[in-house]
Amino acid sequence: MDGQGLPVVVQMDGTLLLDVHHPDADAARLFLLCFAELEKSPDHFHTYRVTPLSLWNAAAAGLAAADIIGQLRSVSRYQVPQAILRMIEEAMDRYGILELRLDDGHLVLASRDEWVLTEVTRHKSIAPLIVAVRSELEVEVPLLSRGTIKVGLTRLGYPVRDLAGYAAGEPLSFALHDTNPDGSAFSLRDYQVRAADAFHQGGGLAGGSGVLTLPCGAGKTLIGLRAMELLQTSTLILAANITAARQWIRECLARTTLSEEQVAEYSGEFKETAPVTVATYQILSYHSRGRDEFPHLSLLARRNWGLIIYDEVHLLPAPVFRVTAEIQARRRLGLTATLVREDGKEHEVFSLIGPKKYDAPWRELAAQGWIASAVCTEVRVELTAQERRVYAFATVREKVRIAAEASAKEAAVTEILAAHPGEPTLVIGQYLEQLERIAERLRAPLITGSMRSRDRDALYKDFREGRVSVLVVSKVANFSIDLPDASVAVQVSGAFGSRQEEAQRLGRIMRPKASNASAHFYTIVSKDTRDQEFAHSRQGFLAEQGYEYRIVDVEELQGKRVTIP
Cβ(335)–Cβ(292) under 8 Å? Predict the structure, then answer.
């Protein structure tokens, strides 16, 4: 068969080039995302890389090496290098060559290959954890070292399949309602059912730990509630901030038969526990200045939890990672829009929370009408002569802020809003002084992290109900704000090219719109600066999800030479 017309070029170094103009590019992209990671996204060819971690996630999700290889050959423009085929086979074979099991109350590390077991147990990170050698294929390790063992083995290139089971937790009987709060019929969407089932896996030893990746607006909270319903056990829910925590509490009470006495908030304001307790990463990570003690981390072990849900798991702070390593007998569910972590700890998420069990592509859900489609536009502005002069002599750190706060951005916001009159709009940024100026210019409310949560909630309510059409919001907008009617987002500054942040900000506007209207996501960027470099990095996330990314100059908006789609 002549492969010249196929969309993927497989290279010897493990990179895969996707021809984005090929008619089969979308189907090939969905396939590549099952086992590879997007690295670069220029105009014509997107670069994916096959890594051991990406292949281990694929293996944990039930994909076989033979299936990946067969399909890769079917989309490859040229013959797939033999070295890549071997890499796929060997990496995926390594997942599960080691297993953790529970035998009469003892934790056992077992292998089907005695030489692999000998190799890893002699390593300096694992050897001190060996309690006893049972046979050539089994050693005993401490129960409380379950997480440490898993992290260590992943770093050695032998990710362990954890079959040691989980504590049942305190029983909790409840059900999801079959009606919406307004009385209309309710049922979970097909992909929400599949996601919860992928996590649960029938309740067996292999089920009960893992990460589900779905876009913002896809109903991750409902998937979490379904997982809780499947397990019928006491649950600790960890959220990114107090607004998100209270959203979880509202959903628990509105969507399930749980009573108010069965759901508690553990926060800076309230420190209560119940069969379902919702806390924040901030409260768990709190410690007194100059002291290493984290007084609230004991919450993770305070009750006999049967399930711990880590909302926005990509934000999991280091102290919670450390305690999570000690509570591997609890079922763990991670929910996120992106597994990208700015600290590079994806391996720790894989080891301590669990492998990726389900991934719902953004474009696929948009095509089905479950989330909005998005039009993504980068608007470029010039520094003034004075700003350019200051920028030229600035340090690297100073350059970042000068470019991010370019005065021309404020006028660009006005131009963009003029193209979307009356549409519910979020203006999001990093620097408070800049946001204060924009809020004053637009005569719009400004929401920051220092605002009292009740005042923030009141403004969110006004926005949802149409009394306020524009909100200027700091980076507090990145996380779990329930603003279903937002249709335009304007990003004036961000965090150093963070793809993670891009996912969260785009997610603010992805809930379905009336008449299937598109959402609009703008990023305002200073030309020929660090700002533009960071924007190029953030484009990677949008390209990974299959969105087109237009770049226009602000003059084109002002001159009306470009029609906003």
Answer: no
Distance CA 137, CA 103 (A): 14
Strands 161-163 and 8-10: unpaired
pLDDT bracket for residue 563 (50, 70, 90): very low
Identify whether the C-beta of residue 240 lies closer than 8 Å to the C-beta of residue 313: no
Q: DSSP code of 373?
A: -
Counted residue by residue, the chain has a size of 565
Across 465-492, b (16+ Cβ under 10 Å) vs e yields eeeebbbbbbbbbbbbbbbeebbbbbbb
Domains of the chain: 8-93 (no CATH), 98-163 (no CATH), 190-360 (3.40.50.300), 366-558 (3.40.50.300)
Reference 545, options 359, 399, 322, 369; nearest CA is: 359
Q: Where are the alpha helices (H) located in 61-128, listed in sequence order?
A: 65-75, 82-94, 114-121
Q: What CA–CA distance (Å, rounded) separates 75 from 16? A: 11
d(CA 121, CA 153): 10
Give burial (CB, 10 Å; 0-12/13-18/19+) of 277: buried
Please give the Cα distance from 178 to 187 (Å, whole number).
6
The answer to whether the CB of 211 falls within 8 A of the CB of 339 is yes
Mean pLDDT of 496-514: 62
b vs e for 417-453, b when ≥16 Cβ sit within 10 Å of the residue's Cβ? beebeebbbbbbbbeeebbebbbeebebbbbbeebee
Burial state string for 9-25 with b = 16 or more CB within 10 A and e = fewer than 16: bbeeebbbbbbbebeeb
As given in the structure block, the two tokens for residue 47 are 């670069």
* Cα atoms found within 13 Å of the Cα of residue 49, Cβ hemisphere only: 7
| Strand (E) or helix (H) holding 387 | helix 385-393
pLDDT (tens digit per residue) in 456-472 = 888 888 988 889 999 99
CA–CA distance, 456 with 465 (Å, rounded to integer)? 14
pTM for the whole thing? Answer: 0.81
Cβ–Cβ < 8 Å for 2, 504? no
Please state, as a whole number, how many other Cβ atoms lie within 10 Å of the Cβ of residue 514: 7
